[in-house]
Design brief:
The protein has 634 residues and is of the alpha/beta class. The chain has 23 helices and 16 strands. The strands form five sheets. Strands 3-5-4-7-6 form a five-stranded mixed sheet. The chain is globular, with a radius of gyration of 32 Å. Residues 1-48, 288-308 are annotated as: Disordered.
Length: 634
Amino acid sequence: MTPKPNPGTRAALPSTTKGMGRHFTSPRKVRNPQKSQSYVSFPGQNSKRQRLLAHLDDLLNHKSTSVPPGEPVPDALPEDPAVDMETMVITDTEETGDHESRSGPQHIRQDHFFSSWKSIIPTIVRPHLEYLSETLGKPLARQMSSLSACSRNCDKRLTNITCLYFDSFASIAVWCCECVTLPQLLVHNGLFPTAPSQPRIAVSVELLGFYRALFERSCDAINALASALHTQYTRRGFHVTKADGGTILEPFRRSLGHAIQWYDMLQVEIEKNVEDILQECRNTIASAKSHTVPPSPSSSPRSPIKHDLSPGSCAPVLVQRCPACFGGQDFGHLLDNGGDIHVAMDGNFHHRHRRSAGDCPPFYHPVYFLPKPQVDNVGRRIDTARKRPPRPCNMLVPDEAIDQCETSYEAADGKKQKAAMDSFDDTGIMALICRHDIPLFFANIDTPGEQQKYSVALIEHLFSLIPIEANVVILYDVGCVLARSLMKYDILSHNITSRIRFATTAMHAYGHEWACQLVYNPRIVKGLGLSDGEGTERLWSRFIRLIGIERSSSRQRRIWLIDRHAASIAKDMVNDLGDWLRRRLKKGIQDQGSAAQKVLDECEFTVSELREQWSNQRAAQLSIRARMFFIYFF
């Protein structure tokens, strides 16, 4: 009989023998309940807290109240602007990690801070445009020592602002009154405030514009910009110190973060105003055209190739994002000949968001991301449809082959966990792009796997913006699996499924079964040309710099970063669309066409004979006998 180990020795500790050798675990020490469960209340603390909360509520509501008795009266403005740089501190990280509940004094202050910015942004659009029109094509003006824009004899109020420029920073005196607000006066003179009210620091608009251009070419690098400015100022003899002469390690990081974020919101507001004006012009032109007499068919005969096409137009948002794909007026090309529009989809699970990073109040309405309720509604509809018996359908590809494809690819397994949900609340994004690799829409993935609700939501949203006669070819890694689901279950309406043809992406196609490739490989399917569907991979390579920043940013800021970066990429690609088409025509059509023609010339068979042989081979390998062979051996 084995002797019992003595208490308190190592042998008496709990252990396990799994793995190599014996492993001991330290016991959990029992806490004293008198120390861990007893609450001590300090006399007068509760009443003091209530007084401070009431005073804070009065300040947030802009009420003039007296300071609670017994409390020191703070100064209106600090003597040294470098000591107290911001009156508001915004942190993205929540200690509890619960981003759903937004209660408490800190969240109230955050909501009020963001609301103040939202109310100020529309008021500084005109001053900013006036400054841009005055300085366009001119060298930068020299720094000013004071600012004032009063046209009447108003009571002026003096505010000392520390202004950050490219090469130095300086403190200027700003006189504001009832004629113009402090933010309007600063923006009109090329300075952007770092706080909505009572700012202590303002940043040069030219410096913010330079960072915006840098962000479009790289990624969000506020810490790098703040550190670089501090180093540049120090080397040039401009030191930031406290009132007692001590140095400040990071004097501009938080201020620059606020200025960059809300300066971008100013650009978004300007873009929205421009788009509203353009849309009003489009509506006016469309209304004028509707009153004109349409030309008779004899005066403008259609081409024989387009006699069966239907007139129509896509939504303006699609035409702006890719005029080559959606700017046409005739739709109805047969799917067997390639259809009208080619798009591609893919999911990426590197763009995650840590749950512990928390959230902030909503400040930006994304233009590329689908709303979460829209995606969740599609998911509920899919779950409801799958509870019904599947419809009988005649698939060209055997179900056994599609099952093998579904097993081979993780994207086809919506239940496979690709990210730990206890650590991440957003696990990735899914993109829809056109055949010219321009991003069209995104869907935020907040489930462990790549469920079909994201791809179906993107497809449904696309079809809501195109004419009812337009036919679409969709390239997807597991297009065969998604096509079978749409045929068996009532997920999308027949009006949509009848105008869709699925294909796999060119690179991923060779991982599918041969029977699947015969139907879904874009290099074999007729009418797809050189559309490979791999533009999503090229898009992900341009987003790679944002991965690390997204995980530690707030939820709202992550969506803002991706959405604004996608807008920058789309703008560059639209501007480069002509060169893109020229390169593809030269390398794709001319070079590859010449090489293919050379092979055909060296062959002893005609093109018609080769096509007939290929048609017979395809029919034989998709026949019932081939299916029985596949079932028997696999």
